[in-house]
């Protein structure tokens, strides 16, 4: 590549010494602009009588990498301008002159973007003459409005930091702090960091209170922000600690009270449940009307049968009733209230001796009528 550049330079040198084509622009070859602005890149030229070939003007954006090709951005050839070579610059690049063949090959690039940064070359050819001129364009982003805030407690005797940060902006960026209230002089204990974006006020006192302004600046613009700093007396640490301890104790007491109430309610519910079970076991089942009626019927029939029965067959009746009797409520009572059972065997003389009176039972036929 170095050999190629040497050959091209030699050719241009020979052409310039032999033929009269010259580029007369003497403006700066390095330009810095802010994004969004418009830049004019000059390329004025003169022709000689011996330059009789067709005029060709070509602007290229040179590749930063030698492995890549240069990119054409605008061209003038055959009395016609061609502007739509690079899509990213479509509609933003134009020739300044309506007829560049009159000696003005300058161009204007509008609405600059950071991607427009690079080296541009103006090449003018009119056979047999050929000339070129290079310019470096740097598109910078001006600082955005910075944000001002403090770091750390603003108490007397403490270190307070004032921060200033701009989210956007091309480096190198510079930050400066100034006090705009009272004496307009920074506190004697104020220290700036290497970039100037942080102002540290050590062992702050009440005199450090006031309004501060930060300015963010680079070569293409500047922005500012302000903040009010108020240094207050340090709080009573003992009171804060005591309040925290009391708060913790009250919280523990409240938790203990809630747990106590829950346990008490649970034990009470458990006790009521156990008492209900005991009451159900002690209370006898309710009386049944059917059982009562049946018991009275059974007792009446037994009495009738006993009354109509002779002493001779009383023993058989007694044994039979022990197996044929119908359960009634009388047998559900405790043993102390139950009637004493009759002896298993009792002879007729024993009944007479006890005061029993013989009863004559009328005879009955099969259908139950008295004979």
TrEMBL record:
Region Disordered: start-end pairs: 283-312, 328-349
Keyword field contains Nucleotide-binding: no
Residues annotated as signal peptide: 1-20
One GO cellular component term: basolateral plasma membrane
Domain Ig-like: 21-138, 146-232
Taxonomy, superkingdom: Eukaryota
Location of this chain's protein in the cell: Basolateral cell membrane; Cell junction, Adherens junction; Cell junction, Tight junction
Membrane topology: Single-pass type I membrane protein
Gene Ontology annotations of biological process type: homotypic cell-cell adhesion
Bilayer-spanning residue ranges: 240-263
Enzyme class, UniProt record, top EC level: transferase
Pfam families per UniProt: Ig_3, V-set
Alphabetized GO MF terms: cell adhesion molecule binding; transmembrane receptor protein tyrosine kinase activity
Coiled-coil portions: none
SMART domains assigned to the protein according to its UniProt record, in alphabetical order: IG, IGc2, IGv
Biased composition (Polar residues): 289-312
Database matches in InterPro entries: Egfr_JX_dom, EJ_Adhesion_Regulator, Ig-like_dom, Ig-like_dom_sf, Ig-like_fold, Ig_sub, Ig_sub2, Ig_V-set
Enzyme Commission number, as recorded: 2.7.10.1
Keyword terms: Cell adhesion, Cell junction, Cell membrane, Disulfide bond, Glycoprotein, Immunoglobulin domain, Kinase, Membrane, Receptor, Repeat, Signal, Tight junction, Transferase, Transmembrane, Transmembrane helix, Tyrosine-protein kinase
PANTHER family named in the record: COXSACKIEVIRUS AND ADENOVIRUS RECEPTOR, COXSACKIEVIRUS AND ADENOVIRUS RECEPTOR-RELATED
Designated name of the protein: receptor protein-tyrosine kinase
């Amino acid at each position: 590549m170095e050999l190629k550049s040497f050959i091209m330079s030699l050719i241009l040198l020979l052409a310039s010494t032999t033929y009269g084509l010259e580029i007369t622009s003497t403006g700066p070859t390095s330009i810095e602009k802010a994004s969004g602005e418009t830049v004019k890149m000059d390329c004025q030229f003169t022709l000689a009588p011996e330059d009789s070939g067709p005029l060709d003007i070509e602007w290229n954006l040179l590749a930063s990498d030698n492995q890549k090709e240069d990119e054409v951005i605008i061209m003038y050839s055959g009395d016609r301008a061609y502007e739509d070579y690079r899509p990213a610059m479509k509609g933003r690049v134009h020739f300044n002159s309506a007829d560049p063949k009159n000696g003005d090959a300058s161009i204007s690039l509008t609405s600059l973007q950071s991607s427009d940064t690079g080296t541009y070359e103006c090449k003018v050819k009119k056979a047999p003459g050929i000339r070129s001129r290079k310019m470096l364009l740097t598109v910078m982003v001006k600082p955005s409005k910075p944000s001002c805030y403090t770091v750390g407690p603003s108490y007397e005797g403490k270190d307070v930091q004032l921060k200033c940060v701009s989210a956007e902006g091309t480096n190198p960026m510079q930050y400066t702090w100034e006090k705009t209230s009272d004496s307009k002089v920074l506190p004697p204990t104020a220290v700036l960091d290497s970039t100037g974006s942080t102002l540290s006020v050590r062992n702050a006192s009440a005199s450090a209170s006031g309004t501060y302004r930060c300015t963010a600046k680079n070569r293409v613009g500047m922005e500012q922000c302000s903040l009010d700093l108020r240094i207050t007396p340090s709080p009573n640490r003992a009171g804060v600690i005591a309040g925290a301890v009391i708060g913790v104790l009250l919280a523990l007491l409240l938790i203990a009270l809630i747990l106590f109430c829950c346990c008490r309610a649970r034990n009470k519910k458990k006790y009521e449940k156990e008492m209900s079970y005991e009451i159900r076991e002690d209370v006898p089942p309710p009386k049944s009307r059917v059982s009562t009626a049946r018991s009275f019927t059974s007792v009446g029939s037994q009495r009738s049968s006993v009354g109509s029965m002779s002493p001779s067959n009383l023993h058989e009746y007694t044994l039979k009733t022990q197996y044929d009797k119908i359960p009634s409520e009388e047998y559900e009572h405790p043993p102390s209230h139950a009637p004493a059972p009759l002896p298993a065997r009792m002879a007729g003389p024993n009944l007479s001796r006890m005061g029993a009176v013989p009863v004559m039972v009328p005879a009955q036929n099969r259908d139950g009528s008295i004979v």
